[in-house]
Amino acid sequence: MVEGQKVTIERGVTVGKILLALLILSLGILLTVRLGRLMYRVTMRRFKVRESIAALVEKCFLILFSVIAVVVALTIVRIPLTVFAFLGGALAIGAGFGAQNLINNFISGIILLVERPIKVGDLVDVDGVRGRVVRVGSRCCQVRRYDGIDLLIPNSAFLEKNVINWTLTDPLLRFSVEVGVAYGSPVEQVRTLLEKAVASHSRVLKSRPSIVLFEAFGDNALQFSIYFWLTLNVQDDYRITLSDIRFEIDRLFREAGITIAFPQRDVHLSSDAPLEVRIVDRAGGS
Predict the structure, then answer these.
(1) Dist CA 223 CA 225 (whole Å)
(2) Contact between 136 and 112 (Cβ < 8 Å)
(3) Residues 172-256, CATH architecture
């Protein structure tokens, strides 16, 4: 208002202004990304917080300063935000449909970082994939399988699918090894040897005793299982421990003369009556 009168100033949008705004915006976002990485490292080293918290701080910083970079770029080149009012509505509708999955995964990533149902280093099963969580990103999580293959799983999968987090509350987990021995084997000695095989491994927790169960009288074997506890570390593969225990069980059983059973069938012929034998020629006579 000038002397009681409304004054309207027209500001045109030219190609030069748009290019200048894009240049300023690109520089602002590049600077924001570098500052975000610097803030992540400073937060980790100086404040000694968890990696997930540092990642959340970095993402919030990127979002905030990206919006500021857009506003600053438009202000410097004097492009009013009202110019994009109509286009903004149309773009918002288009982006809502086109970037639905992207936005869903982004919001899911924030939920994962805040609620922390999974974190870096956890052993998880999701959608048939088992591995270690290496990184929780804004769009997807990086899960490394035991064969060294890295999989990128969308963040929404951790909220929408059934996920097993083996190390959610603590890294302790109970495992078992099953074995069948031949009928007639000394069952008490079998139990002693199973306990000895498990106790000899360095990774088995001694604070929690192992349990041997006589599971069943199987068709071909006496079925035994031994249950024990392991601490799941990021570097170790629990399958190696299970394999070592099976090797030790096989060695102890061989030394004790105990046979590990395998599927077999016994055929018994009745000798109460003599067997009838017939010779039939090709012509069909007898």
Answers:
(1) 7
(2) yes
(3) 2-Layer Sandwich (3.30)
Angle between helices 100-115 and 51-76 (to 10 degrees): 130
Element (H, E) at 247: helix 238-256
Q: What is the C-alpha separation between 225 and 204, in angstroms, rounded?
A: 16
Q: Is 20 exposed, middle or buried (0-12, 13-18, 19+ CB in 10 A)?
A: middle
Q: Which sign, positive or negative, has the C-alpha torsion 153, 156, 157, 159?
A: positive
Query: Quick one: fold of 15-111?
Result: Helix Hairpins (1.10.287)
For the chain, give every domain's residue range.
Answer: 15-111, 115-165, 172-256
DSSP codes joined into one string, 166-221: TTSS-SEEEEEEEEEE-TT--HHHHHHHHHHHHHTSTTB-SSS--EEEEEEE-SSS
- Report the alpha-carbon distance of residue 219 to residue 223 in Å, rounded: 10
pLDDT average, residue stretch 3-16: 61
Mean pLDDT value of segment 94-98 = 60
CATH 2.40.110.10 correct for 115-165: no
What stretch of H or E contains 151? strand 150-154
- C-beta separation of 51 from 141 below 8 A: no
Distance CA 167, CA 228 (A): 16
Residue pair 139/109 in contact by the 8 Å Cβ criterion: yes
Which pTM was predicted?
0.63
Using N-to-C axis directions, what is the helix angle for 187-199 and 238-256, rounded to 10°?
140
Residue 143's nearest CA partner among 169, 120, 170, 109 is: 120
Q: Rounded to an integer, what distance in angstroms lies between the CA atom of residue 143 and that of residue 149?
A: 8
Question: Between 212 and 16, whose confidence is greater?
Answer: 212
